[in-house]
Design brief:
Residues 79-236 form the HhH-GPD domain. This protein is mainly α. It has helices at 29-43, 70-79, 85-98, 102-107, 110-117, 123-141, 154-161, 169-179, 189-197, 207-217, 220-236, 238-242.
Length: 255
């Protein structure tokens, strides 16, 4: 860390928004467990997420590789937006090959960063966001490192990350669940569509309200597995991908 530059203290955590649908009793803990178990039996746990599972969930495997930092995870999530897993991984590898340190990314020309991540799509938008985040972290912390977030609560992490331009609620939720191993439940396109179709959130719900409701209703110990399974199911099940959500059903077997 540069001399004479003290990192700022974390901002006070904002109050959690209220439950948007307090009268909707779904999903119950039993429903969550049933869907988790049914999807595990049907498709198994997705291999791409295994390394993020907690040791208590999957024995003898570390939750993360020791060289994977929180800032690495944040950039990986940003690069994964609106593209395939394979393309986002290639983009991250290309970025790290061109700029081995995040300080180099900060000091690089934006167009050079764009070139490095072009294979991941939306390079102009993503490069600008990555540069803005690097600049913001450096200004706030005096170094480009977010590992201090590991010691904060969920509410404090949300408050901290919301200060950086280009980081939305879904990105924050993914950082919490995958890279900080906190109990959170991101709502992506697949989760949003499926939970509407089985009546866990109202048809009129937007993604933000769905996120708030599902995080209130789903037991913490089921959030990680259930989220990963729903995301994967939405990708591999053509019937779910093509099915509209005009008529909700609470029959899990309809998935």
């Amino acid at each position: 860390m540069p001399r004479n530059l003290k990192p700022r203290k974390p901002l006070a955590a904002a109050m959690e928004p209220p439950e948007p649908y307090p009268d909707l009793p779904f999903p119950t803990a039993e429903q969550c467990r049933s869907v988790r178990d049914d999807l595990l039996a049907f498709q198994g746990f997705p291999k791409e997420f295994e390394r993020y599972r907690r040791p208590a969930t999957i024995a003898a495997k570390p939750p993360l590789s020791s060289d994977e930092s929180v800032i690495d995870g944040l950039v990986s999530i940003l690069l994964s937006q609106n593209t395939t897993e394979a393309n986002s991984r290639r983009a991250f590898a290309s970025l790290k090959s061109a700029f081995p340190t995040w300080e180099e990314v900060l000091n690089a020309e934006t167009r050079s960063v764009e070139k490095a991540i072009r294979c991941g799509g939306l390079a102009t938008t993503k490069a600008a966001r990555i540069k803005n985040i690097m600049r913001g972290v450096m200004e706030r912390r005096g170094e480009i490192c977010l590992d201090y977030l590991r010691g904060l609560s969920v509410a404090e992490v949300k408050t901290e990350l919301s200060q950086f331009k280009g980081i939305g609620p879904k990105t924050v939720a993914c950082v919490l669940m995958f890279y900080l191993q906190q109990e959170d439940f991101p709502v992506d396109t697949h989760v949003f569509r499926i939970t509407k179709s089985i009546g866990w959130v109202p048809m009129k719900a937007d993604r933000e309200k769905a996120y708030l409701h599902l995080n209130k209703r789903i037991p913490n110990d089921l959030k990680f597995d259930l989220n990963c399974l729903l995301v994967t199911h939405g990708k591999i099940c053509h019937r779910c991908a093509n099915k509209g959500v005009d008529q909700p059903t609470r029959d899990v077997n309809a998935l």
